[in-house]
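Tutorial handout. Part one gives the primary structure; part two gives the three-dimensional structure as tokens.
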Amino acid sequence: MLGMTTQAPKSSILGVDWKAGQNNPLHHTGALSKHLLIVRRGQSFSVQIIFKHPFNSHEHNLIFTTETGEQPEEKRGTRCIFGIPDSVKRSAKAKAVWSAAIEQRVSYPEMGIVAVTITPPANAPVGKYSLRLKHSREEEEELGALVVLYNPWCTDDSVYMPEEADRQEYVMNQHGVIYRGSGNYITALAWDFAQFEEKMVQICLMMLDLSHKHLKDPADDVAARCNPIYVGRIVSAMINSEGDRGVLNGKWSGNYSGGVSPSHWSGSYAILQRWLTIGCHPVKYGQCWVFAGVMCSVLRFLGIPCRVVTNYQSAHDNNRNLTIDVYHPDFGVKYVPTEESVWNFHVWVEAWMTRPDLPPGNDGWQVLDPTPQEESNGVFCCGPAPVTAILNGATDLKYDVPFVFAEVNADCVDWLVKKDGSKKEIYSDTKRVGQNISTKSVGSDKRWNITSFYKHREGTEKERAVFKYAVTRDYTRSHETENSEDQDTNEDNVTENGTAASDGDSSSVTGSTPSTVNGETAGGSLNGTAGNGTAGNGTAGNGTAGNGTAGNGTAGNGTAVNGTAGNGTAGNGTAGNGTAGNGTAGNGTAGNGTAGNGTAGNGTAGNGTAVNGTAGNGTTGNGTAGNGTAVNGTGSATNIIKMADVETRSSLPALPQVTMRFEEVSKPLNGKDVKVNLVLHSEALVSRPLSINISVTAMSYNGTPLSTIQSELKQETLLPGKDLSVPVVVPFSTYWEPMLDSDVMKITTLVSDSATPNLMFLAVSDVVLLDPPVDIKLLNEVRVWRAAVLEVSFSNPVEETLRECSFTLSGSGLWREEQRISLPDVGPNNRVKVSLWFYPYKTGQHTLVADFDCSMFRDVKSSITVHVKDTMLYRY
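Part two.
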């Protein structure tokens, strides 16, 4: 029996020139590939088709078909048929229609050479596309593949960014700065985004295809990639590995075996490349700045403008009540972890896009947070949350605005945990959270303080009004048109890297190193007056004297005549539900009777605790001040003020004035003893016996204590009108091991007056250690594909031998993967130096990072900018 074979129809196409070398640079993707065509939607590109015969445009129609995804459909925008001339009949439901035209001036039809301009629409889903061509009656032929990205240069694209300088910074710049340290003394970490490395195409598209949405419904997922809101949420979920095959496994303390410490990483590409190499399984390990740095790389590759943002004193509010309880153990009491905390700093990403799904005014920067903290619609992702919505307290808008609002605005309540497990409120603070919100400036490495984009100035009426508005929103609603408030007109501050930032959001103090004098002093009275706060914004007469906040004003200057002393909030609790009497409930006369024997509500009538004190600053009289409650309530005592502000005074006139501050004896150099002085001062006329509990703890940056370094209890006497200086010395031999994988050394001081044990003061200082330097030198001019000579060195600053030493060198365009160099042991006060050659493979500016790691110093980093020039060719 004879078998029959079918012969494939002969192709009429001799070849296709995608002109990637010409198109890609015009689409700002030239650094990604010189071979694969990578274009941006809403912008045309050129291809050259070479036929085997002359081409006659009057006789030969060109019908193109482009598709993306496994189940392409016209109605989803994932398939489009278009032609020259475009006589294609499409469905009325067709989305994302492409177009094409012949470029007559560069076409040579008699030779069969046809140049075609093709334009993907500005709403096309991003991803990899196939392109086919049907020529007259010929069979449809595969032309090849191309990649389509978002286009911030196109006015019709939802990620359009109008300023070229911003596009260069937030899309094209591969060099970044991520801010860490503490809120007062900020450190800068150079980060290599490397979004234009060639494998980024495969990595980022693979990431989208492995998302939970794609696995559930591939067709819907690919179609939805036209929307940066959707893609932003997908990338936020895929950077972490909670519940999917995401990139990074997070770990915040303990042993990092099986991976590397998060502090090891200096850029995104090594992480993403490893994720791809190990079969798209999570890379170990990451923390918030690593998650954010990697996400920024992926979004910039996709064409979504973005930047990395650091929020200092960042609240983690898991119950969405906008209040964080902070617990301080008394001397000898073990710390018990809590679900809520205030992170020393937290890092997220802002992405630029329109928000047609929300009321007008919410376009622009959106918070996207890939760090797995809380679930959003059942998935560990966060955002996009409009920054303007956060500023205006619109916590009923999507996505995750309440959580991000709390991160920058939550109130804090400090509690003392006693040995018997009981808790006493020390202080309530409305200003601690959300400080010095920072990002890299456009076109420079200066730090840009963008706090005023997120919140109104602390302590202003507008800030408190926004807070009150935020807590009254219905979080379950997806969106609701709200009246936005005008933003503050204060200009945002720009400071140099490594400078000390003040408590405000529009000023800074120059400084080059982290400092111990960056703590806070909270002097909360447990036996003071229930004044110092506004009893309400209503009339304290025949109406309600407490529908406002307990604030920072007087605790009632109006007459509480036969009216309720407060059915509203006097701070964080109720200001009382009884009658204050017939006199003034605050600074006037409280009638002729006593101010009461009940309690002033069940909450705080201000920001501190005032037990068994007077109900104001006036006269209490001899009788009963009505049936209401005025005493045994709570009131404000002192404010938390940064140590840089010199002092914190008790605002209680019934008590002696006290100040506390930390003074830096020497810079906190890693490898040297840490030395600070706690200075106390009293204006009292008598000596005051004090009990001083000093605890030094190694802390993770997310507010979790890792181990106690040392603690001591001192008994001192504070003389009237004199400073009492209490030295605090933490030897290197004591702290080096607990601090090896720690971010912050927290010095906590609880001071109590022995004569009045319930009167306590709290001072906290976060010490950020300054690492010894790593020296980097380039010994010759650097040119692409030519040998460059590099010298890296480190000097041992301690009287111990350093073991398990290594250098890790990295930099996109310089090395294709990290270079690890094992080193011999380094003796006391000895220097180790390494010289090596490397061959840069890309021109332009690149960030070179050197990381030194050993048994006693973890991931000490230094970086330089390398200018790689073109190779000069000579003719002989």
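Part three, for discussion. The CA atoms of residues 45 and 118 lie 6 Å apart. The chain has a mean pLDDT of 80.
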